[in-house]
Design brief:
Layout: H1 2-26, H2 34-57, H3 60-119
Length: 120
Amino acid sequence: MKKNAYRRRFAVIIIVGVLSAATAMGCAGGSLTTREKAAGIGALGGAVAGGLIGAAVGHPGAGAAIGGGLGLGAGALIGDQLQGQEQTAGQQQQQMEQNQAELDRDRQELERLKRQQGEY
């Protein structure tokens, strides 16, 4: 029974350590990109899930490490896709704004020409 309690305590220590490290890294600099956020979430989720699964089979540390690594990779891939979609949407928005500005200039020029034609 003591061995099982030790394993649980070790799993909790691993999880708290991972969460603490992630918090410290998140506060280290400027804002995080979508890819970085997703990688962090994946690493934390994977470490927690791996730690719990590892604790059930007697290896919480190894489970947390493996789960964290797999979660990091999966989160980074998902975050990369999301970041690409955000960039594409931003480029499309910028193009629409440029098109709208050009339409507004064309309308103003048309109105100017109509006024000029009405003067003659």
